[in-house]
Amino acid sequence: MAKELIRLSDCFVQFDDDIILDHLNLYINDHEFLTLLGPSGCGKTTTLRLIGGFLKPTSGDIFFDGVRINDVPPHKRAVNTVFQKYALFPHLNVFENIAFGLRIPRTDSSGKKKVRLPEEEIRGRVLEMLEIVNLKGFEKRSISSLSGGQQQRVSIARALVNEPKVLLLDEPLGALDLRLRKDMQNELKRIQQQMGITFIYVTHDQEEALAMSDTVVVMDGGKIQQIGTPEDIYNEPKNAFVADFIGESNIIDGIMRADQVVEIFNRRFQCLDKGFQKDEAVDVVIRPEDVDIVPEDQGQLRGTVTSVTFKGMQYDIIVDFYGFKWLIQTTDFCPVGSHIGIKIDPDGFHVMKKSQYSGLFGDYSSYSEEYEEISDVDYDPEAEEDQEGGHEE
Ligand SMILES: Nc1ncnc2c1ncn2[C@@H]1O[C@H](COP(=O)(O)OP(=O)(O)O)[C@@H](O)[C@H]1O
Ligand SMILES: [Mg+2]
């Protein structure tokens, strides 16, 4: 059974007149890998700082193992933090960087005497950590001789050597290149499972969040938008913000005509969603990979291809349906200008309630122009009229 370890109860944070966290409610289970995901400025780091004890909420409470810890200072919490900037000591070697926290005298169980860990124990624990982060044999190396990825491993080892119950990781892989980041994602997941501790991970990278987490918390504007497993968040986004932030989504105005019947573009489609009011206005998500391309006369909808981008695994095509542009991913090549039909299975629709985010996301009208703009170094917006379609012939 999952056991609750940390709870943020109605946490509100305000700086001057700005609301930074707006009544956050969240619990984190023991041994869980939980990720806070959202755009820059949405309040992820602030949430971590509350848990780490570096910031007190303006109002609301934080509990650890059922005990209120609002007033417990950071070093007395069973929590450690790994930052994007490694903050290693450049003048100490790898061994001493990791051993640093272990060498600080600590009060013994009677609470009266300061004691030091025996050197042998320190050595044993540091070497064990080096093995866990795959840096066996690196103990004498200087920090400056290490790559970025290796430095990050040292900072992870240093945070873990004190055996915290919870590790807070604030965009720890942000400075690494893509390939290394992917390797480190797997490593971190393995370390978390091997050590059996709780990870609270912060990222703005949705792919990273989906790949690593047991639970994803999607945030925007200081508010939690959705909490769920990666599959929940992807397949059942709660609103247009979540649908757009996690993966690619076409988001279309629709009307629920009945349970499992949704209308878009004045046509009715079978879907799996139910429980809406009759004729309720809704947002309908259709993922680019859930659209099948068929001959024009067999399509449920018909459209015209306006741009094609080769992506290796598939083509990303933009298709104009009655003035609204969709992104569709397909392995069939459809040239620009071709007329196609599409079919969508009932489970290809996901119906959401209208929200403050309705109408803001999920239309790919500007996609092709943006794409041309970044791919064309000589791009001149003034001359756009003259060269329209020039790259597509
Ligand atoms: N000490 C502070 N004083 C005033 N505003 C702050 C402070 N720290 C963070 N903020 C603001 O709070 C918002 C959320 O910040 P942060 O939690 O760092 O976001 P994230 O980590 O999601 O990018 C941002 O708008 C930021 O400018
Ligand atoms: Mg941050």
Automatic annotation (TrEMBL):
GO CC annotation: ATP-binding cassette (ABC) transporter complex
Record-annotated ABC transporter domain positions: 6-246
MF terms in GO: ABC-type putrescine transporter activity; ATP binding; ATP hydrolysis activity
InterPro entries: AAA+_ATPase (IPR003593), ABC_SmlMolc_Importer (IPR050093), ABC_transporter-like_ATP-bd (IPR003439), ABC_transporter-like_CS (IPR017871), Mo/tungstate-bd_C_term_dom (IPR008995), P-loop_NTPase (IPR027417), PotA-like (IPR005893), PotA_ATP-bd (IPR017879)
Keyword terms, alphabetized: ATP-binding, Cell membrane, Membrane, Nucleotide-binding, Translocase, Transport
Span list, region Disordered: 369-393
Reaction(s) catalysed (UniProt annotation): ATP + H2O + polyamine-[polyamine-binding protein]Side 1 = ADP + phosphate + polyamineSide 2 + [polyamine-binding protein]Side 1
Domain of life of the organism encoding this protein: Bacteria
SMART domains recorded: AAA
Biased composition (Acidic residues): 369-387
Enzyme Commission no: 7.6.2.11
Alphabetized NCBIfam families for the sequence: potA (TIGR01187)
Assembly and interaction partners: The complex is composed of two ATP-binding proteins (PotA), two transmembrane proteins (PotB and PotC) and a solute-binding protein (PotD).
Function recorded in the entry: Part of the ABC transporter complex PotABCD involved in spermidine/putrescine import. Responsible for energy coupling to the transport system.
Protein family per UniProt: Belongs to the ABC transporter superfamily. Spermidine/putrescine importer (TC 3.A.1.11.1) family.
Record protein name field: Spermidine/putrescine import ATP-binding protein PotA
Gene that this polypeptide is encoded by: potA
